[in-house]
């Protein structure tokens, strides 16, 4: 039985929740280093704190993928996980910037780290089924469109989430400076708003999308529904040891293309982790001229605190990080509008490789933008005075945005056609290993490299990210695309 095509708005609705999820991710990526620093973390240890994110992804996504493959209830197959994850994620987003309120019971930095881990785990519970939902609901001939729409919504959410603290400071008028051991009010309210939109957008997808019934789904995928039901009964009767053995066998029998894409993913996500962790420090040092010593807790204590002009420069750089993140997300939105057509015209691998190359060159050019001359910038919603070098950083963000759009769509578009329909969820979850593992490796070594090799000069760790992204572009050509037949 041929799977019917979906209308544009049906594809839009089934991915709409990604808008809110990405607002949450954008707020996390742009502000968690800032929050943890405000709560007492030093520069070289930030990458270790950030390990909570990939570790949660590594643990949660395969479990959710496998569980959602076998879940069929009134709400659907993937939708129950999206809804449950969104509720927990929204609650954690409210708690994280208020970690200082728990000082009487637990050190704020420790509480913040725990809530960060819970929040990221909940993001993963919500995030992973969206990928599988597109594979479930969208026929093969619309797959490029499906993942491109998803990428479009992701990046619209990223733009909104990235600029939100900046807007709350420069348009609404909330304070962006933090007191000792506390988080700035603009950041707190940005997380409140993000939590609300996250939950609302996921609810939209849950109530506007109807998943296929098991018999209908199996028919569209060329599978025998009775055989699948019997297989599920056998799986449920197995012991934990047998289930773990079955999972290991699934890992061993993964399609070869997953292993080939893993190399590309390694270089891509190694670089992205560095950006999210160290961009604020790199920009403050390289463009605003903040000395490396002001990221040394011992030096700050010796000097009796951070001088007002240094605090102001770090705050301004932190605000501008949000604008730069919004910039690369906006560039990704624009590129995602044509990415599907380019992939159909030139091939997925060509578009994927060129996109990663653009991102790598963007990171490598970061060191060039050091002009401290203050210039007036009209951002339409407000006007600011920033160094010319900071404004120039929008140029590298163009390449980063192109790479980001491709990273979010191309591997999944390449992979989806190579996965057996009855194991799409578990394989998509396993594929998250290729996202989490490079981030874990980056988190374990990036701080040491920054401190021991680069003497806390964060701009050089960004250039290392650029080199990794270029290697990712080259490794795309090792991937051999393939498709499975409906009955596989």
Description of the molecule:
The chain is mostly helical and 488 residues long. Helices cover 73% and strands 2% of the residues. Strands 1-2 form a two-stranded antiparallel ribbon. Helix 4 (52-69) runs antiparallel to helix 18 (424-431), helix 4 (52-69) runs antiparallel to helix 19 (433-453) and helix 7 packs antiparallel against helix 17. The protein is globular. The model has no long low-confidence stretch (mean pLDDT 83).
Outline of the structure:
This protein is 73% helix and 2% strand.
What is the strand and helix layout of this fold?
Blueprint: H1 8-15, H2 17-38, H3 46-49, H4 52-69, H5 79-95, H6 108-137, H7 143-172, H8 185-208, H9 214-220, H10 225-237, H11 240-252, H12 256-286, H13 297-302, H14 308-346, H15 348-364, E1 374-378, E2 383-387, H16 388-392, H17 394-416, H18 424-431, H19 433-453, H20 458-475
Widest beta sheet: strand line-up: 1-2
The structure class reads mainly alpha
The rounded distance between the terminal residues' Cα atoms is 15 Å
Average pLDDT works out at 83
The biggest beta sheet reads: 2 strands, antiparallel
Quantity of strands, as a count: 2
Fraction of residues in helix? over 70%
- Share in β-strands: under 5%
Which blocks of ≥5 consecutive residues have pLDDT under 50?
A: none
Q: Helix count?
A: 20
Calculate Rg over CA atoms.
22 Å
Cα shape: globular
What sequence of helices (H) and strands (E) makes up the elements? HHHHHHHHHHHHHHHEEHHHHH
């Amino acid at each position: 039985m041929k799977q019917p095509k979906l209308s544009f708005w049906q594809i839009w609705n089934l991915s709409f929740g990604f808008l809110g999820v990405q607002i949450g991710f954008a707020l996390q990526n742009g502000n968690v280093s800032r929050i943890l620093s405000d709560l007492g973390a030093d520069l070289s240890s930030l990458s270790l704190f950030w390990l909570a994110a990939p570790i949660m992804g590594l643990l949660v996504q395969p479990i959710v993928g496998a569980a959602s493959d076998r879940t069929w209830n009134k709400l659907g197959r993937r939708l129950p996980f999206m809804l449950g994850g969104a509720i927990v994620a929204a609650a954690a987003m409210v708690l994280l910037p208020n970690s200082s309120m728990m000082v009487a019971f637990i050190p704020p930095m420790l509480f913040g780290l725990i809530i960060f881990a819970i929040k990221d785990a909940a993001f993963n519970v919500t995030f992973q089924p969206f990928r599988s939902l597109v594979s479930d609901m969208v026929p093969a001939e619309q797959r490029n469109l499906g993942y491109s729409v998803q990428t479009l919504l992701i990046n619209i959410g990223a733009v909104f989430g990235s600029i939100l603290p900046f807007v709350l400071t420069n348009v609404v008028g909330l304070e962006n400076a933090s007191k000792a051991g506390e988080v700035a009010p603009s950041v707190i309210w940005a997380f409140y708003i993000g939590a609300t939109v996250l939950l609302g957008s996921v609810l939209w997808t849950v109530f506007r999308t109807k998943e296929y019934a098991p018999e209908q789904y199996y028919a569209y995928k060329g599978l025998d529904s009775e055989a699948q039901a019997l297989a599920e009964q056998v799986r449920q009767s197995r012991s934990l040891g047998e289930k773990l053995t079955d999972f290991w066998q699934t890992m061993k029998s993964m399609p070869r293309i997953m292993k080939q894409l893993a190399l590309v993913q390694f270089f891509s996500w190694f670089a992205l982790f560095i950006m999210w962790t160290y961009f604020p420090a790199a920009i403050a040092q390289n463009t605003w001229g903040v000395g490396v010593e002001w990221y040394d807790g011992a030096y700050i204590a010796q000097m009796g605190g951070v001088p007002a002009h240094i605090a102001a420069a770090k705050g301004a750089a932190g605000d501008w990080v949000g604008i730069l993140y919004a910039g690369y997300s906006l560039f990704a939105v624009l590129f995602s509008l044509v990415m599907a057509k380019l992939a159909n015209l030139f091939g997925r691998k060509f578009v994927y490789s060129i996109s990663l190359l653009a991102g790598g060159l963007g990171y490598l050019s970061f060191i060039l933008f050091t002009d401290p001359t203050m210039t007036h910038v009209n951002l339409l919603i407000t006007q600011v005075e920033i160094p010319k070098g900071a404004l120039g950083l929008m140029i590298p963000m163009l390449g980063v945005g192109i790479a980001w759009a491709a990273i979010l769509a191309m591997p999944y578009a390449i992979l989806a056609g190579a996965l057996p329909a009855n194991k799409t969820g578990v394989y998509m979850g396993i594929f998250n290993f290729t996202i989490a593992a490079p981030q874990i490796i980056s988190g374990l070594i990036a701080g040491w490299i920054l401190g021991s090799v680069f003497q806390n000069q964060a701009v050089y760790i960004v250039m290392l990210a650029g080199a990794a992204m270029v290697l990712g572009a080259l490794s795309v050509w090792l991937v051999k695309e393939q498709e499975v037949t409906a009955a596989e």
